[in-house]
Predict the structure.
Amino acid sequence: MARVLINLPRTARRGEVIEIRTLIQHVMETGYRPRADGSVAPRDIITHFACLYNNEEVFAAELAPAIAANPFLSFSLVAAESGILAFTWTGDNGFEQTETRSLTVT
Amino acid sequence: MRRTGSAPSRRMPSARAALLVLLLAGGARAEEGLPSLTGEPGDAARGRAIVTSRQRGLCLLCHAGPFPEERFQGDLAPSLAGVGARLTEGQLRLRLVDGRRLNPETIMPSYYRTEGLVRVGPAWQGRPILAAGEIEDVVAFLVTLRD
Amino acid sequence: MRRLALALLLLGATAEARESSFALMSPETQAMQREDSANPGMLWVEEGRALWDSAGCAGCHGDVAGMRGVAARYPAFDAAPIDLAGRIAQCQEARQHRTPFPRESEEALALAAVIGLQSRGIPVNPPDDPRLAPALARGEALYRERRGQLDLSCAQCHDANAGRHLAGSPIPEAHPTGYPLYRLEWQGMGSLQRRLRNCMTGVRSEPYAYGAPEYVAIELFLMRRAAGMAVETPAVRP
């Protein structure tokens, strides 16, 4: 379980634009770096991130080896209704992690 | 200060050459510099490659110079532009080999000294930063920097 | 001139004369340090919060907020000069009777990060303990000692040439106010000792082993030299 920091307001007014910030602890091994013994370290990165808002995808990102370790992704969305935000990160070596947060819209 | 003796000077400056240096310098400090480490002329092209390498010469970490293709040149030391006009081959060699003889507080590493160093890493022990032939290559290049 | 200024600083002159390397960073990197939601070091802080409970620190120390001001008063003296990481390890070994987290391990950095955070904004102030005097002198001597195949001392860059550029990088005054910190170059968290080892390797010198008393002595000297500057842990640096 990678450590994750998610920053978003607990409540918002209907129609308000809110900013969501996510930070996940993960190496980003490019797949090109030689190790001390000369062999190339295999790629190990997060490849995909998606945010579902009440099961509807509102934001997604494809990540490539140039992305830094511990990637920070920030995006905005319109607070339409109360519900659940699900954040899913997937990557090499079968990495997959989902975090959920609730949003109350008044 | 103009260069003295035959060019490129490879032999120990004669007493006459030293006197000439003194006269031309108008009585200022006569710094003789060092004679060739190998007796063979250095290769200026190889010298340029050493100077611009941040792994071998390390020069651009501190010095800027006439290298338009090299970004991020340091500003801790005088620019190398024109250094071949300001210093003789022997003087350039002295500064490279052991600049501490001229200024004990200098940050210029001694490129051809192995004594008196503290806790040298195992990978670097027992040898100077540059080999004698590399020193001659660098000197051969630096004397070409006239403007 | 710089030597005189330094001597004055060690005698307790104002902190305003000195500059944190925070000031040398780009606005984007500064923003990364300022925003807790974007600062990757906060991932280690969160890890540290969890360890504070799971590793049993809370059992004696209560809430980690009680650590306020602690990190600002290191290195200290306890049987010998000791840095904060050494104190944590000593606590685990002597009082918890467990194998301490190894130096520079993720757990050790996480605990140091969460404890350091409790001192963020507080002026650096290592104790004025006379028993620290020999270590302080040794630390200063090590700071001024030329070492390595390149034959350079810390002082030659960080006192005499701070503000000038080594290749493209501005040379900071080297005040370790933000450790452990997240270094973009490391893509991870590291201690002051890691950074000192990088510098020593950079001048082609053999670094001391992690935990060596030489590092505690150097840190003591640097923290006295930085006295009055605000703790920045967890800092972000290029």
Q: What stands out?
A: Residues 1-12, 25-29 of chain B have pLDDT under 50 and may be disordered.
